[in-house]
Amino acid sequence: MREVQRALQIFLLGAGVAVALGAKCADPKYERFSGHAMCLSAGSCTGKNLITSGLKEDHALALLHAINRFRSLVATGSVPGFSPAANMRQLVWDAELAKIAQRWSEQCIMKEDFSRTERFEVGQIMGHEWKTPITEGMNRDPFLLDFLLMVFWNAFDKSYPARHVSEFVPLEANIKLTQLIWAESAYIGCGHTIYGDNVQGHVSQIKSLFCNIGPRGNVEGESVYEEGLPACEVPSGHYEGLCSTKEIEAAYSDPCKRKNFVKAYPALCDDRLFYKWIGHGVPFPYRWCNSGLWKRRFWSAFCVLATLLFSLLVGVGFELSRQFRRQPASA
């Protein structure tokens, strides 16, 4: 019975997508692109239960800020096994890419979509998380950051050979990583959906994240980035080692100056917490000085020395007093 239900769901999903593709495009702007995500219906999630969808502004800022910080680590040569990058660009959030990613995310399909724009071809990274049973109101923040950690750790375990940086070689385990650090990519936009589905006879909650990146990377034979010390015409004033533009610099707003953002994502706004969050794959650039610890040590040492000095003075005074009493009285 379960197999029949599952087969029916797959049939309905396939039929829904097929009908959508065969029908008039939901957004005429993308009609000339065959099978484009924007030609599908918003929020269709055929055969499944759409719980919530979309990213709040802080979620988008967290993704963008975390990815740019990681690109900065690679560009400055801070990731063991990776040489620095001369031409890695600072990513900016792109509303069109986010809209396309969100539309695809709402189809509740666990496969990549490479719907392009009129400006450039698009690459994509995706991640999914299952939880049984369904619990309403699950916090999506840990999932978003955990997904990035999963991608980052592919760099930390050195599973992508450094020799492939100069000439991209597609390795299934690393295509998310190489797309995230592709130097010529400059724009990113993500979509997020939480929905319920029957997975192997169990009702599960599935969280999906799709991020579109353009211009697309992972082009076989091309370099992931140009190796060498950062050499940018306009260096980023916010992410060391990344290349920016005057327009990006003028429009940039630091998310870590927002109290609500710092409260929600403390690890993204404090170097010590950031390096602790990403684990031991990237060494902390300098020794963290715990001023409180050294103050306690100073006062402890001061108290010990003061006690010794006081004891010494008391002892000397006592000895002088005793010797004075022993002296005979004058005639």
TrEMBL record:
This is SCP domain-containing protein. Residues 58-221 form the SCP domain. Keywords: Membrane, Signal, Transmembrane, Transmembrane helix. The chain crosses the membrane at residues 298-318. PANTHER family: CYSTEINE-RICH SECRETORY PROTEIN-RELATED. It comes from Cloeon dipterum. Pfam families: CAP. It comes from the Eukaryota. Residues 1-22 form the signal peptide.
